[in-house]
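Data availability (excerpt). The following record was deposited with the supplementary files.
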Amino acid sequence: MENKKIGFIVFVFACFLFFGLSYVRAVAQTTPQSPEKVEYTAEDLEDPFKEEEVVIEAPPVETPPEKKPLPELKIQGIIWGGIFPQAIINNKIIKKGDVIDEARVVDINKDGVVLLYQGEEYKLPSPALENLKKPKKKSGGSEGGKQ
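Predicted structure:
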């Protein structure tokens, strides 16, 4: 029985040694070796191993377009109390989201119309507010009614 144990241990050790060495050989063969330096001697032909210098040109810098002033927009009237507020600008009926003379309508409320033009917000005041800001002219004639 003792001989069988020793024989089994020797067998396991031999298997381990054989398979271990086989594995090490297989790994060594698949590991890339450092490449040898190849020198190109053909003089009339282009060297395929020569590294070319790559020049990357920067894209041209675009200057932002000049900002134009807000076009002449005149509010004739506003309907702001309903579900769909509307305004009359330059004799055109517009609603929120519409574009008039390249300006997008952002909001319509009792104070006026808010527009987005070339990335900036502009507020056109309500005609009623404009009338309140204007000084009232006194009508001609005498005061008191009798002369």
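Summary of structural features: The chain has a mean pLDDT of 78.
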